[in-house]
Design a protein that fits this description.
Elements (H helix, E strand, L loop, with lengths): L1 H35 L1 H20 L3 H17 L4 H12 L1
């Protein structure tokens, strides 16, 4: 279970970093493109925004699963207080 948790944490971090890098790399292009064709730049910005949100900026599905698994493992291993892990399970489900 610990290997699964490690893998999921790495995948989650990779998605969040990838979405940030895509956003940061697109900014100079969008700034230059907005000077020549503002309407097309808005379309490109919305497209980039969709990709960034899908990878890690919008719905944090992988993060929620990660918190849920950590909290569940904490309950099983009796680490920290049970109330803390119950809150973690609630956050992961929400």
């Amino acid at each position: 279970m610990r290997n699964i948790l490690n893998a999921l944490g790495h995948i989650w971090a990779t998605f969040v970093l990838a979405s940030t890098f895509i956003f940061l790399v697109s900014l100079p292009f969008l700034a230059n493109f907005a000077d020549t064709n503002e309407d097309s730049a808005v379309v490109v910005l919305k497209s980039v925004d969709i990709v960034v949100d899908a990878l890690g900026g919008g719905i944090e599905l992988l993060g929620a699963i990660w918190v849920l698994i950590i909290s569940f493992m904490g309950i099983k291993a009796n680490v920290y207080t049970k109330a803390l892990h119950v809150i973690g399970v609630a956050v992961g489900i929400a």
